[in-house]
Amino acid sequence: QICNQHNAEAPNLEQVFHRMAQTEPNLDHDVSWFLLPSYWAKMVVALISFLCFANSYDGDFVFDDSEAIINNKDLRAETPLGDLWHHDFWGSKLSSNTSHKSYRPLTVLTFRINYLFAGGFYPVGFHVINIILHCTISVLMVDVFSILLGGLQFSNKGRRLNLAPKTSLLAALLFAVHPVHTECVAGIVGRADLLCALFFLLSFLGYCKAFRENKEGHNFSIFWVLVSVILGAVAMLCKEQGITILGLNAVFDALVINKLNILDLVQKLLHKDKSLENAGLLRKGLLFRITLLMSGGASILYIRWRIMGTGPPAFTEVDNPASFADSLFVRAINYNYYYSLNAWLLLCPWWLCFDWSMGCIPLIKSVSDWRIIALAALWFCLIGLICQALCSEDSHKRRILTLGLGFLIIPFLPASNLFFRVGFVIAERVIYLPSIGYCILFTYGFSLLSKQAKKKKILAVAVLGILLINVMRCALRSSQWRSEEQLFRSALSVCPLNAKVHYNVGKNLADKGNQSAAIKYYREAVRLNPKYVHAMNNLGNILKERNELQEAEELLSLAVQIQPDFAAAWMNLGIVQNSLRRFEEAEQSYWTAIKHRKKYPDCYYNLGRLYADLNRHIDALNAWRNATVLKPEHSLAWNNMIILLDNTGNLAQAEAVGREALGLIPNDHSLMFSLANVLGKSQKYKESEALFLKAIKANPNAASYHGNLAVLYHRWGNLDLAKKHYEVSLKLDPMAPGTKENYNLLRRKLEQLQKKGG
């Protein structure tokens, strides 16, 4: 559908574009840079962007990948696809009070496709898709920058002209190799930003197509405007920032298509000038298109608001301390300081960190803080650029600076804390899109310097040096994102005051079994943040395992005092109290944990162990049954039920439970072993033998498996096989309880049989 709305006095678009091409200055004229055909320029950008991040292809799942991918049930085939539209990015229900309200179903869908094609959680496929997405986006940036820097112009055949091939290539290269993008590309969770950016750019390019000359000679195509709105909605379904493209399309329309002078327009509005129509406000359907964009954006936001629910996301003070400050002055000062740090990351992306929260950036609480200088520098630069963008007599300069500032600021607004509280202090991933504006301003500044410089080649070499340094920085940073150990340790020098950094280093060490080193980092995390309950919980766990029960109890008691609904800490406190033989307190702690987390199978399992120690067998069996109902694959709970029923002489019931458990977890060798013992006592020797052999095949180095199979053969009368498995058991564990005595009994019996036979 083509719109017929145009002013009868307005010139033909082809004439307008032809005159623009002749009269506007060309950025490329004074720039000493590579001039390549469009195809080769895109190939170069794709290759260099690939080289920057190629070494991340075989990295592990790191940091947030665990929650968004490994622990996200929405990736698994058994979860209905429809659930993706009612869950947040992390797999929680949007209606839940604990949901972060990050609604990105299309991103989760791509994770699910990755998972299905790979046949499990294999990170290579996830990483490869991220690298391909960044390369694709970088290639699209060549077209986007050619429009933003050179203007939107078409040939007589309707083909878009690239009037800034050199500067658009430079800007695209700057974007492709910017080290701040590493988190988005090398971190799999960054796919949300990559997909959002892809559809963001497609929406912009689609909007530009609305103004392509067509056979009927009309001004614009409603079809492409609507396509642009739909692509903006798709971008938002990948990540929230995507909706901002609709605002940028409106800005682009006003500045490039209608060539509005914003300052002149404001002055005429203030003076109620009757020549507003001649100012271009109504020419070429601008108001109609902006109405379409605004209506589409409002509809998208309303639908998302209805899906998300009216409640805001739940964040804590450690996530974003400035947003919890009582003083409006403190909040405003710190928000602006965060903006200056984001700007610095774009200018000098050398100090990069996976997490900037929890003490990494202390709050500014007074004007005497020297960091106020950063705010002053930021606003000095911004005000200078805004003045030039509004007041310059050079329309070309006004257009480029306004577009640069628009692409820098507008996509950043959802992360600015201005409209709602966000769950971070600084996040490198959220400046993936704003870096487009930075690249425009950098390239324009380079063109101005080139115009003034006598030795243009030296300036070009300097810029080439910046690109090469950024390529090396990207490669280095990508290698740090390959494993959690490297990633977390790289942050220690950047954010030594960040308690979460020390916590994550400690957790990584604990997972690898290095408890002594882990304790050191957990203690430092608690020292930096005395209210860091997760660090207290993990430290208490390690101390519990090392039998340092007194300190473990103190830490866990403090954790639940600070956060009374911390279910995991209540459960761990119960385990410690049980070890200290304070059974009543332990039982109370377990039930408090279950009160705060209704579906807590591990807590029911530990409660069952407590009841078993107290000989409350019925209560123990009920607790373990609850654990298996909540988590059918809870092997320990099934095993304990079988063993308790076996020990209390309820062999028929033990057999029934064992068969039920193996039906749910058919490959669990410990369940095979427990059921085999029960069947042996019930004199079902053949079936017992089969299960023992199957368990041994799955775990051949378990001494008890061989020892109990030997006992079965001993009872059954297969003495030679009994002797063989006793010997294997003793070889694996010479101190195995009872095995040596049984073996000696068997040997004496064999000797007696030999004497009789002799």
From TrEMBL:
Ranges that cross the membrane: 39-57, 131-151, 163-182, 188-208, 220-237, 286-305, 372-391, 403-424, 430-449, 458-476
Pfam families: TMTC_DUF1736, TPR_16, TPR_19
Keywords: Endoplasmic reticulum, Membrane, Repeat, TPR repeat, Transferase, Transmembrane, Transmembrane helix
GO biological-process terms attached to the record: endoplasmic reticulum unfolded protein response
Gene Ontology terms, MF aspect: dolichyl-phosphate-mannose-protein mannosyltransferase activity
Primary localization: endoplasmic reticulum
InterPro entries, A to Z: O-mannosyl-transferase_TMTC, TMTC_DUF1736, TPR-like_helical_dom_sf, TPR_rpt
SUPFAM superfamilies linked to this entry: TPR-like
Top-level taxonomic group: Eukaryota
Pathway assigned to this chain's UniProt record: Protein modification; protein glycosylation
Subcellular location: Endoplasmic reticulum; Membrane
Name under which the protein is recorded: dolichyl-phosphate-mannose--protein mannosyltransferase
Source organism of the structure: Charadrius vociferus
